[in-house]
Amino acid sequence: MLVDADPAQGNSTFALGVDHEEAEFELLELPDEGFDLLPGAIDIAALTAYPVEQIPTDEYDWIIMDTAPGLGDLTLSIIALADIALVPVEADVYSVRQGARQALEVLNAANPEAKACLVVTKIDRRYWTTDPLVQEVTRMPECLKTRIRTCSKLREAPAETMSVLAHAPRSNGAKDYMALAKEVLRLA
After folding, report:
1. Is the whole model's pTM more than 0.90, yes or no?
2. From CA 90, how far away is CA 147, in angstroms rounded?
3. Cα(180)–Cα(167) distance, rounded to whole angstroms?
């Protein structure tokens, strides 16, 4: 199950072809995708805590919750439920030098039982700063081994309202995200 817990943006909902501004907070079955979606309904954006009691946690082996990039009350209410929390860290100075450590501190304070993991994303080797920044993050014990490279297919897939796995299964983006999924499964 995928829970789009970022109702203001609703990117996961949109990427699956559902208009998040029109979506209601109700479970949608997506048989073509092989999972269900609890969409990012705009009407819950003003809530201070995510209505977690409405997530049927006992019906699924895995529940992936896509949260807002910020660490507001809505996001923190989701983090409190997590067994594993993935923090995407873009391969840029601000994300690596400030964002990664701050995110880990907040995650550990919000849910000390959760395994907090960093995932290096948007690796673009055209820039001389990329390799030193990636090395800096990978020295942190919370960093996963999988790296997500930049890839034009990752930008194209949402425009086609498809996952990168459906849009371009042989692309670097699809390969990287499959490797990440396998690594996360090993954490459980």
Report:
1. no
2. 10
3. 18
